[in-house]
Amino acid sequence: MNLVKYQKKYHAELFDNLIPFWLKYGIDKENGGIYTCLDKTGNIYSTDKSVWMQGRTGYMFSFVCNNYGKNEEYLKVAKSCIDFLNKYCFDSDGRMYFTVTYDGKPLRKRRYHFSETFYIMANAEYYLATGDKTCLENAKKVYDFVYGIYSGEIEDPFKITPKFCEETRSTKALNEPMIILNVTDLMIRADKENAEKYLKITRKLVDDIMLFNKKGTYLMLETRSTDGKYLKDIATMRIVNPGHTIELSWFLMQAAEVLKDGSLVLFAEKIFNAAFEIGWDKKFGGLFSFVDCEGFPVEAHEFHNMKFWWPHTETIIASVMLYKKTGNKKYFKIFEKVSKYIFKYFVDDKNGEWFGFLSRRGEPNFPESKGATYKGPFHTLRGAGMVDLMLQEIIGGQK
Length: 399
Fold this sequence. Notes:
single chain; mainly alpha; Glycosyltransferase; three-stranded antiparallel sheet; two-stranded antiparallel sheet; 55% helix; 5% strand
């Protein structure tokens, strides 16, 4: 197996392609934070800023410092994004915006808590890199706020019309406990004095996540009925997002470590296998964005056949993690298959970074882009970095 080859390849991808691209084209030196709407050569095509991406960038550049050694330029980028968030991205009710203008004026606010969760991640990881206790306190404060809303202990101050009429159909989404699980894993490491609190929450979140498993299978539904009934006749209730499930599989493997629960690794392995089997395009390669678990057409037909960048980064992370934990060469073969697809279709050797959005046949959407409201220096950097680090551990363990 080409362990060393791939380790060197992903290390170079992180430090010679991905990080330099964002440092060159994305950093806003005047207003702070980062621009992520970049075309194929790095030109800014929209100056509006994604609040998610300010948090994700703050997290990611801190993560690189924590795992590869401190770099003042990276820490400066991370702090710039965190400062931008603190200065501009909170509403008066404590909730955060979704998008703001280049200079921080509010544009849009959503019901979801992802702006807040990425804010927590940025502050917690930056604290681990620098020891800045203000960042830790900010992470703890917003974590308790978000988890309180999730658990029902705190009423969400943002009053917005529900996405669905709850009296007709009450539903829950997988993405909520899933992202909080990932954030909680980070808080266990950052806020060690309160580790027991986070461990209890981890167990509760895992239990909540299990309710999204379609009975008799290992497919994870994106949406479930609150009463637990499988609404087979409703298209939106049959949706599986292969990339989300694969990402969840490695979140669960991390949870298994802190909970010391080997059965959770087995469950993570099974949902990974089920998601990859239903999600991999056997004709053209790559992972579908959405799949109907009963084989019917996907209602969101305008992009379900598209190949997005991020499910592929989640797959290389999860497959290497499974290989590391189980020793099963099957998972390294999956890693190789997906890596070959990534470097053939997503990576742009000429202009840098990765194309974000491909057709089913692997052609970049026209006009091509390297960043958007949802795409910035996060999934690609996290994928390359985590794969590099895990392969280094595997190679070191074989010597």
